Amino acid sequence: MANNFRVDVLRRDRSCLYIRVIGDLDGASAYRLLNLIEKDKHSSRKITIDTNALRKVHAFGSDLLETNMRTLKNRGVDIVFIGRFKGTFSYE
């Protein structure tokens, strides 16, 4: 995992899980984020991931996240990316 990667949960309730990701997103970092989402996917109706504090997105991390987000979306989880890297994650 990238040394500078961090996940901050800014809000967690029944209506929303709001996550801010910070640093560089590589493959191990993507798994860390996915594990957090997997644990909370039934607790909140919507998951918002704020990408403004990301410095770099590695291709493997992006691909891994995209593949797994598509699976979560097919299970009915509403996941929205916001911030400057939101266009990097297109899992429609």
Describe what you observe in this structure.
It is a single chain. Helix content is 33%, strand content 34%. It has 92 residues and is α/β, with parallel strands linked by helices. Strands 1, 2, 3, 4 and 5 form a 5-stranded mixed sheet that branches. Helix 1 links the parallel strand 2 (16-25) and strand 3. Helix 1 packs parallel to helix 2 (59-74). The radius of gyration is 12 Å and the shape is globular. The model has no long low-confidence stretch (mean pLDDT 86).
Cα-atom radius of gyration: 12 Å
Distance between the termini: 26 Å
Largest sheet features: 5 strands, mixed
Secondary structural class: alpha/beta
The number of E-state strands comes to 5
Please give the count of helices: 2
Strand content: 25-35%
**What helical percentage do the residues reach?**
25-40%
**Spans where pLDDT lies below 50 across 5 or more residues:** none
List strands and helices in order, with pairings.
Elements: E1 6-12, E2 16-25, H1 27-40, E3 46-50, E4 54-57, H2 59-74, E5 78-82
Parallel strand pairs: 2-3, 2-4, 3-5
Antiparallel strand pairs: 1-2
Keywords, please?
globular; 2 helices; alpha/beta; five-stranded mixed β-sheet; 92 residues
Quick take:
It contains two helices and five strands; from the N terminus they run E-E-H-E-E-H-E. It has helices spanning 27-40, 59-74, and strands spanning 6-12, 16-25, 46-50, 54-57, 78-82.
